[in-house]
Amino acid sequence: MTASSSVDTRAVGVAGSVAELQHAVAAWRAARATVALVPTMGALHAGHLALVARAKALAPRVVASIFVNPTQFGPNEDLSRYPRDIDGDRRKLATAGCDLAFIPAVAEMYPEGAVARVDPGSLGTILEGEFRPGHFSGVATIVAKLLRQAAPDVAVFGEKDFQQLLVIRRVVRDLDIPVRIEAVPTVRESDGLALSSRNAYLSADERARAPLLHRTLRDVARDFAGGDAAAPDRGIAALLAGGFAKVDYLAVRDAETLEPPRPGRPARVLAAAWLGRTRLIDNVALAP
Ligand code: AMP
């Protein structure tokens, strides 16, 4: 069932197979509509819906994928407890103007015997990649597959996952995938906490401490831009003093290569830190 044949406007229509997805996209193309893709893992929040809104502004037809991709989770990560709410997601997508949800089963995306993977090289092994081995290969693989399957004109991603965005840009370029990659700024709570499906894991006490991550990143960005090379170390100390159990990394990097920053080029502060058993990531731009 696709949205175009559905009379239920409260929940977006679903394609469960690649064939159904491609059938819907082909009908849109036949009507000369361009197509935008918004890849997600579901448990949708206002950050995801901002991507859908941007997609809708860029193309008359929007497909959002909901797929909790097993190949991007490590063996000790939260794959089995990752939050899921397909009915709620479908209603939110309909309200946001999405035309179709692509919700494949794992066996549809990784049929038995599927072994090929996209390797994003060194961009996938630094920062997040150092703490989540194989994560970006899983991301690059699933995004490459989604881009092949839906063949959209444009695909929309959030700056919330900044390294992921760079990995995807690199993969699209290196593999000559004909799609435009569009980035949307991070949507935050009023206290600065970046919206994330994983925020649901936070206890009340952890939730109260969580905005310190964004505050600290902003402080580091300001101080580093002002010439204070010790700002990242002070940022780590501030997070630990504020109740974060561990800081995997907090670093200032070149905003395009993630290599050490160079004067005159755009830079970004990126961090991953643990509040109890929940790992939060965030990033902010340095003032030019
Ligand atoms: P996820 O469902 O976590 O895999 O995220 C799907 C897409 O939504 C990715 O492109 C994310 O970067 C983006 N996203 C997640 N959280 C936010 C947010 N708070 N603001 C903007 N984009 C987001």
What's this entry about, in short?
This protein is α/β, with parallel strands linked by helices and 288 residues long.
Q: Termini, distance in Å?
A: 48 Å
Average pLDDT rating: 96
Q: Write down how many β-strands occur, each being a DSSP E stretch of 2 or more residues.
A: 9
Ligand catalogue: adenosine monophosphate
Oligomeric description of these chains: single chain
Radius of gyration: 19 Å
Strands of the widest sheet, in order across it, are 1-4-3-2-5-6
Tell me about this structure:
- The chain has helices spanning 18-30, 46-58, 86-95, 106-109, 128-131, 135-150, 162-174, 204-209, 212-225, 231-241, and strands at residues 14-15, 35-40, 61-66, 100-102, 154-158, 180-184, 246-254, 267-275, 278-285.
- The protein has a six-stranded parallel sheet with strand order 1-4-3-2-5-6, with helices on both faces.
- The radius of gyration is 19 Å and the shape is globular.
- The N and C termini lie far apart (48 Å).
- The chain has two domains: 3-184, HUPs (Rossmann fold), CATH 3.40.50; 197-285, 2-Layer Sandwich (Pantoate--beta-alanine Ligase, Chain: A,domain 2).
- The model is unreliable at 1-7 (pLDDT under 50).
- 41% of the residues are buried.
- It is α/β, with parallel strands linked by helices and 288 residues long.
- Adenosine monophosphate binds next to helix 2 and strand 5.
